[in-house]
Amino acid sequence: MFEKILIANRGEIALRIHRACREMGIKTVAVHSSADADAMHVRLADESVCIGPPSSTDSYLNIPSIIAAAEVTNADAIHPGYGFLSENAKFVDIVTAHGIKFIGPSADHIRMMGDKITAKETMRKLGVPCVPGSEGEVLTLADAEREASKMGYPVIIKASAGGGGRGMKVAVDKEALSEAFSSARSESKLAFGNDAVYMEKYLSGPRHIEVQVLADGQGNVVHLGERDCSLQRRHQKALEESPSPAITDELRSRIGKTVSDAIRDMRYEGVGTIEFLFENDEFYFIEMNTRLQVEHPVTEMITGIDLVQAQINVAAGYPLDLKQEDIKFSGHAIECRVTAEDPRTFAASPGPVTEFHVPGGLGVRVDSALYTGYNIPPYYDSLIAKLIIHAASREECLLRLNRALEEFVVSGIRTTLPLHQEIIHNPEFRDGHYDIHWLEKFIASR
Length: 446
Ligand code: MV4
Fold this sequence. Notes:
Helix content is about 35%, strand content about 25%. It contains 15 helices and 20 strands. Helix 7 packs across helix 8. Bound molecules: ligand MV4.
């Protein structure tokens, strides 16, 4: 097992990783920007190294600085968390070349899934259902028109180097296609330095359902059920839950088996998330994330499995000690992402936190690196806390979430806590009747 892990991240996820290490008897190294010298993850870690100025590009994305920090502290592994360098194959190559273990999948698996055309082709060949669309890249407008008439309008044009909603354009008819095609290509070229695009039939009102997997690269794979992440605003998730109100036990075990078999066939190692659009009781693969995700606690609460400890164990070469039959799904979990934003305008709201009181009690978990007196820097992601509720049923989960939101106090800044209260009181949400467009419509209508 590793003796010392460098945590190449900040905020709540740096703390989350520190906690896993601590329980496993592994020493931790925090890295931080000059703006994060007083951050909680820095205070708790066994050692810390300043890796650069406030800007992420010069600190949390600064590969030479992070490698140097790992070398001087003698860290034998690096955990990237989510965002920043977590899906950077080049970083994995460099970490590996320095004799340090990257806690996550191989550079090849990251590269494969980072290219959305290759990801889709790989999954399709392994028997995972995909959205109907082009076979690989669409090179010319004439090809785009041919593809569109085959599948029928509306169609969506996606950047192969994109993902998470960046570089997508919808065309409702032949007239709109030319503009959508050329703007998708030029925006992709500008954002990613790559203008490869592909096409799919546009699904009008699907849910976003993702399946969590855990694999050791030695032939052992388990799936840990799904998360319903349909509640998003501008491709930022706001609330996630498991099980999805739309997924039956039968659908779960069917898609879970399909996904596990594919992940085993590709010899994937680590945790992974396979994203689907789900419409009319059918799953359509769209992307795979090769990292730990923000919303991983939802899965932890219903399975009792510590995903970060599991990541560390498989990275250290221990075979997975779990079989699919060992995985028992228990009750219901909901996560609310609390951000430092105005709950009506979504303007960023950094600054000093004068009061921070978190809810507690049975089935209440708060993952946050905030403390009273902390000054939220303006340079990074606005996520300040994740409130995760677990209860026996969705109904009890909502009752418990309501009382936890009532207890939660964050003063000095504006937060999205009031938005979450509004969401959970809405009858459609309470009935589980929502798709990927629901939250934006709700926000516009209140
Ligand atoms: C789609 C789609 C409809 N049809 N693909 C957006 C993020 C990226 N991961 C995929 N996305 C979408 N792909 C087809 N064929 C609609 C979206 C989409 C979306 C997906 C998940 C969650 C929120 C979304 C919001 C707008 C559009």
